[in-house]
Amino acid sequence: MSKTVKIGNIDLGEFPLLLAPMEDVSDPPFRALCKEQGCDMMYTEFISVEGLIRDAYKSVQKMDIYDYERPIGIQIFGAEEDSMRRAVEIVERANPEVIDINFGCPVKKVVCKMAGAGILQDIPRMVKLTELIVKSTNKPVTVKTRLGWDDKTIFIEEVAERLQDVGIQALSIHGRTRKQMYKGEADWTCIGNIKNNPRIHIPIFGNGDIDSPQKAKEYRERYGVDGIMIGRASIGYPWIFREIKHYFATGEILPPPSVHERVEAAKKHLEFSVEWKGEKLGILEMRRHYTNYFRGFPNIKPYRGQLVQSDTAEEVVALLDQIEEKYSTFDVLS
Questions:
Q1: N or C: which end of the chain has fewer CB within 10 A?
Q2: In this model, does residue 38 exceed pLDDT 80?
Q3: Chain-centre distance of CA 2, in angstroms?
Q4: Residues 201-227: tens digit of each pLDDT
Q5: 247 in helix, strand or coil?
Q6: What is the pLDDT of residues 68-89, one digit of tens each?
Q7: CA distance 15 to 226
Q8: What phi, psi does 265 have (nearest 5°)?
């Protein structure tokens, strides 16, 4: 019998698929779709500890979690010890299974405060902050990070050992440096080296460029990771989780979701978004997703233009119905 992967006492199955925490994407409406399609473990959008301790509405709202999402991790980012400690107390009240620390966000406004990937410029501080959080909670603490600040400072193998030594219970690694942002190809070689390091006993999850079942299987076998974290490939395409699982189990490639499935997913996403954020904001924040739901559809641009200009849920649903009718005979290839 194959060994299952655990974060603390949380059993994630034999080879879990995780949803990466993505700002303005990994909210409850989107997570609901990913869970429905077989995602094993999800994370919230990253949450500013400064926002939490100041009771900022947007930061607090990001901690909304629902029972069907479990197990789930709340991800926080920050750079100040006192703020991180106080934020952990607030996060614990939301009762996630895991507290995750973001040491990987490459965005300038985060990095310039020495948070996110910024802390990769100061590894001792990174280790110290992690140890502080581990000691501040009884919940499992995990970390998501990158290979290094740039290609001259790739110390991730040492970092993995040191973070494990101070008590983290899983590590997710995006196979790029901060300098790369999201450009170029993710390098999984270091991720594989960490997994194969005899000193490492915590789960190692790889992240970066997994956009097909075939690639997921190839990387699983080549690098030996304990699971895969999927980010951009899931945006507008939550079916990536079920497709990978089906391929692992059978070796077969599932047909892509039909036009009807895509329209229904967009409707469900919209409905939950409006319910959770209110109609105005819910409709506004759904606009970024339509391109992805209907990617590859011929002559979709006029509909997309109308979708992003519609101000009511009724208008959007009517347009989605029109899309389904127009493309009912369209053979979706990808």
A1: N
A2: yes
A3: 26
A4: 999 999 999 999 999 999 999 999 999
A5: helix
A6: 999 999 999 999 999 999 999 9
A7: 6
A8: -65, -40
Q: How many CB atoms lie within 10 A of CB 149?
A: 21
The CB-side HSE value for 17 (13 A sphere, CA atoms) comes to: 28
| CA neighbours closer than 13 Å in the CB half-sphere of residue 314 | 0
Question: Is the torsion defined by CA of 109, 112, 114, 117 positive or negative?
Answer: positive
Q: Give all domains of the chain, ordered by start, each with its CATH number.
A: 6-250 (3.20.20.70), 259-326 (1.10.1200)
- Model pTM? 0.94
39 catalytic per annotation: no
End-to-end distance of the chain based on CA atoms, in angstroms?
35
Tokens for 305, please give them. 């233009």
Tokens of 210: 């997994």
3-state secondary structure of 76: strand
Residue 199: count of CB within 10 angstroms of its CB: 10
Give how far Cα 18 sits from Cα of 10, 21, 41, 330, Å.
14, 9, 5, 31
* From 34, 39, 105, 190, active-site residue: 105
Task: Please tell me the distance from the alpha carbon of residue 137 to that of residue 280, in angstroms, as a whole number.
Answer: 37
Residues β-bridged to residue 173: 145, 206
